[in-house]
Design a protein that fits this description.
This protein is of the alpha+beta class. It folds into 3 domains: about 5-90, no CATH class; about 95-190, Urate Oxidase, CATH 3.10.270; about 195-210 and about 220-345, Urate Oxidase. The protein is built from 7 helices and 15 strands. The strands form 2 sheets. Strands 6, 7, 8, 9, 10, 11, 12, 13, 14 and 15 form a 10-stranded mixed sheet that branches. It has a 5-stranded antiparallel sheet with strand order 3-4-1-2-5, with no helix packed on it. The longest helix is centred in the first third of the chain and has 13 residues, at about 75-90. The radius of gyration is 35 Å and the shape is elongated. Residues about 1-25 and about 25-75 have low confidence and may be disordered.
């Protein structure tokens, strides 16, 4: 086709007619003749014709041009804006529909959200880590659903890093934002300590798991701290019946507490590790390994002993008002685990 005779097109969007032109060749000014209707007649194509003047005066070589003109039966600009506003206002809020099943939901929200947090650290005053977060509220029986995006809004409103001191504010913000009687916040995160090997005193970093579970009911706040630490346990029975050696294994001890005032995560870790046959280390040289092995052999501990040892120390802690201690040994000579639990409060 002669590139001096290119095509343009027109389309109607709402009450605006959008006319497109492309590559008119030499800077002649073509006019447009309708080439027929397309579809339902609301779209038409036009063809450049001769040297007649282009009504819009924009076409030049190598340029693509779109021209907006008002349809002959169009509204004025103010009316168009009003129509657009009304079209947006008709979006339906499905969550606010009434539910007829007459069942209240205790907790509904988001879970598995990872977010930076900053917590208090006994050695360095603060520690930055990443938490896996859950945020929930209650839902009255009258409502079909909650607004999930509002949980994320609340969290991000407190900045790019959540501080532990802000937990109460976050709970109350959830109550207000989602019009809820109760709000729940759970945060689980790795906690790191620098430890020295028992003989060589070489330093290495150990990771533990900590968790905050906080609930706001009206203005009342309930807070539970959970700490999980791996330990070594050596079987007292195996030691007693064997001429040499005894089976030992890694065990996981989980401690949950409520307290009158804040308790250091490090203090709970120390209680757990001192209650087992031996604590664990990331880095051990041969002299360290010998010392750890002999320490475990000299302190045999059943899973029952582990939870009792921890419970005795928590009983003596003046700020602890409730606790639950669980221990699970991943048995080295059995195809099952050993488990024990004590709860008080």
């Amino acid at each position: 086709m002669d590139r001096h005779r290119q095509y343009g097109s027109a389309e109607v969007r709402g009450q605006l007619q959008i006319v497109h032109f492309a590559d008119w060749g030499p800077p002649r000014k073509p006019t447009f003749q309708p080439m027929g209707n397309v579809g339902n007649g609301r779209q038409r194509e036009y063809k450049a014709a001769g040297n007649a003047a282009l009504p819009f005066g924009f076409a030049k070589r190598g340029f693509a041009v779109s021209v907006v003109v008002m349809h002959k039966n169009s509204l004025d600009a103010q009316q168009c804006a009003e129509a657009a506003r009304k079209s947006q206002a008709v979006m339906h809020d499905k969550q606010n529909e009434r539910d007829t099943r007459e069942l209240r939901i205790d907790k509904v929200g988001v879970r598995g959200l990872r977010f930076p947090i900053q917590i208090r650290d006994k050695a360095r005053s603060k520690q930055n880590t990443i938490a896996t977060i859950g945020m929930f509220v209650d839902l009255p029986k009258e409502f079909k659903g909650t607004h999930m995006s509002r949980f994320i809004e609340v969290l991000n409103a407190h900045g790019s890093v959540v501080h532990v001191e802000n937990i109460t504010d976050i709970l109350h913000a959830m109550q207000k934002k989602l019009n809820a009687a109760t709000a729940h916040l759970e945060m689980e995160f790795p906690f790191f300590l620098t430890k020295k090997a028992p003989v060589t005193e070489m330093e290495s970093v150990m990771d533990y798991t900590a968790r905050f579970d906080a609930t706001a009911s009206a203005k009342d706040i309930d807070f539970v701290l959970t700490v999980k630490a791996n330990v070594t346990t050596l079987c007292p029975c195996s030691k007693a019946i064997s001429e040499y050696g005894a089976h030992n294994q890694r065990g996981l001890c989980t401690v949950q507490i409520r307290s009158r005032k804040a308790v250091w995560i490090e203090d709970l870790i120390a209680i757990i590790e001192s209650s087992a046959s031996s604590e664990l280390f990331s880095l051990l040289k041969r002299r360290d390994e010998k010392a750890v092995t002999e320490r475990a052999y000299e302190n045999p501990v059943f899973v029952e002993d582990l939870v009792r040892n921890v419970a005795l120390k928590l009983n003596a802690h003046r700020d602890v008002t409730w606790y639950k201690v669980e221990a699970e040994n991943f048995e080295s000579i059995h195809n099952h685990n050993a488990y024990a639990c004590i709860e008080k409060g």
